[in-house]
UniProtKB/TrEMBL annotation:
Name of the protein in its database record: Homoserine kinase
GO MF: homoserine kinase activity
NCBIfam families per the UniProt record, alphabetical: PRK05231.1, thrB_alt
Known EC number: 2.7.1.39
Pathway membership, UniProt: Amino-acid biosynthesis; L-threonine biosynthesis; L-threonine from L-aspartate: step 4/5
PANTHER family: AMINOGLYCOSIDE PHOSPHOTRANSFERASE DOMAIN-CONTAINING PROTEIN, AMINOGLYCOSIDE PHOSPHOTRANSFERASE DOMAIN-CONTAINING PROTEIN-RELATED
Catalyzed reactions: L-homoserine + ATP = O-phospho-L-homoserine + ADP + H(+)
Domain Aminoglycoside phosphotransferase: 27-253
Stored SUPFAM superfamilies: Protein kinase-like (PK-like)
Class of the enzyme per the UniProt entry, highest EC level: transferase
Pfam families, sorted: APH
Origin species: Sphingomonas morindae
Amino acid sequence: MAVYTQVSAEAMAALLHAYGLGTLISAKGIAEGVENSNYLVEASAGRFILTLYEKRVDAGDLPFFLALLDHCADRGLPVPRALRDRDGRQVQSLCGRPACLIEFLPGVSLTTPSAGQARAAGEALGALHAALADFARERPNTLGPDGWRALAARCGAGLDAIAPGLAARVARELDFLAAHWPADLPRAVIHADLFPDNVLMLGDRVTGMIDFYFACSEIRAWDLAVTHSAWSFSGDGTDFDPAIGAALVAGYAARFGLSAAERAALPVLARGAALRFTLTRAWDWLNTPADALVTRKDPLAFLRRLDRYAAQGETLFA
Ligand SMILES: Nc1ncnc2c1ncn2[C@@H]1O[C@H](COP(=O)(O)OP(=O)(O)OP(=O)(O)O)[C@@H](O)[C@H]1O
Ligand SMILES: N[C@@H](CCO)C(=O)O
């Protein structure tokens, strides 16, 4: 369960007062997620998400993320804004953490999406890219190709403790990606983490895209590769569903467009995506605080994807 910081009812009531949102009815820690502390807050004025930013989110990046949410919401996308308090502030300090009160969006995240739902997710990613085409701010991808070697080094011998031979496998992949990473594809601000748990749906309709805290300037098609790696496999990475992968890519291409060069690069970009999540999950596996009530995510679920993309990349995007 991702509640690293406990917020008292008194502090939440004071926060709601600062936003003019009436009185506190209830507040529950949200089990999903691993990065931040999230609460579902019921107030007399409605339902909200309270997020306290932990570990990976740098407070200095919050203006970028919040401007991005406003930009997308202004363009009609189902993206939650951070509310403003009576003084116009979007970021608060709560229990020593930066915190935001965020619009609640309806919908549920899927564990086994259908092809129709995957197509809708691809279209939603395309709509997001269309909306972000004129978003002028930039943020480097701290978890992109330039950072993977350093992250692997920080995991060190821990990689082999997770799975014997993992350090050497990662080193080989880093060399492969350094030699084959595409240089000339279009870049833009992307979501960079559009996993099924970050897409809220009602039936075949996308009602929310959330968790933009890895958004960054990157090769745009990498976002599609990340989404493909997250959606098209069983959770443990053992089974690939070609219908889901094809529907995602088709939905994206229909809504935003995908050039021949981008399409051709997807197998390599997907290897990069699978390596990114193998490494960040490995780091979290090795460094999750003992007192955190959080379920660690299995790095090997993305190593399996990596091996599959490495062995059959072209086929998985055929
Ligand atoms: N705006 C929102 N509207 C409705 N539910 C939300 C909203 N934001 C977050 N949630 C709920 O809270 C859960 C955790 O949120 P989120 O994914 O942002 O957390 P996180 O710790 O940053 O997670 P992750 O591990 O995906 O990085 C979501 O799965 C969803 O159920
Ligand atoms: N979506 C990521 C967590 C955030 O980086 C994962 O499942 O590993």
